[in-house]
Amino acid sequence: MVWKDLRKMNSCNFVLGIDVDFLQDKDKFDYWYSQMLGERKAKIDKFRPLNSKLLSLGAGIVLKRGLDMLGFTDSVILEDQNEKPYLQGATGLEFNLSHSGKIAVCAFSDAPVGIDVQEPERFSGNLMNFVYKDEEIKYIKYRSENQSDIDRLCTKMWTMKESIMKYYGKGLSMDPRKIFIDLEHGDKAYYDGDALENIFFTEYEHEGYYITVCSRYESFSDEISFVMGE
């Protein structure tokens, strides 16, 4: 089944994920590296830490798997002025990648989409002040009984903010402190005081990781399909 068939069925929104631990096996790494196109190999090569290489390759695998499923095998991937990737000549197909820890994910849609995955990390006061508005910090502390609760809620909210930045293709050129997520009133989002209209969040958890998709759909996909790379 290819992209045009999925669009007719209104089932063109899905997320693929992968656990990159298996890529620590050199033979498997070398095999999957050989399957990547030039631009993905260049991304992998520029990283020095091994885990960064594994995650970049994992992102390439889920992207390749998704494009193969949709009938876009060996398509050319380009980047716009904000370094957001897109598929040359594939009108109406949008995708977005993210990775963290040992997980890489890719969201596919027929409309703009942003995705972010994060493993919980410790949010110090300085980091919270850099990322969140005063109203958000008050809400986080009100909803938290201990530091672990703060870390989980901060991580969840960060995936929401970053998915917005990636949805709009702006990355960190959008000031995260100007993004306000009103969790008490239906997860409404604002930027610099203005409501961000017609965007919705779909949230997932996987083995302690928080994953958020920002899209035009109130319900994006029921679950993430994790693929095997062996």
Automatic annotation (TrEMBL):
Positions of transmembrane segments: none
PANTHER family hit by this protein: L-AMINOADIPATE-SEMIALDEHYDE DEHYDROGENASE-PHOSPHOPANTETHEINYL TRANSFERASE, PHOSPHOPANTETHEINE TRANSFERASE
Gene Ontology terms: cellular component: cytosol
Keyword Transferase recorded: yes
Residue span, 4'-phosphopantetheinyl transferase domain: 112-214
The keyword Phosphoprotein is assigned to this record: no
Single Gene Ontology MF annotation: magnesium ion binding
Any one Pfam family match given in the protein's UniProt record, by short name: ACPS
UniProt-recorded name of the protein: 4-phosphopantetheinyl transferase
Biological-process GO terms, alphabetical: lysine biosynthetic process via aminoadipic acid
Keyword terms: Transferase
Family statement drawn from the similarity comment of this UniProt entry: Belongs to the P-Pant transferase superfamily. Gsp/Sfp/HetI/AcpT family.
Domain of life: Bacteria
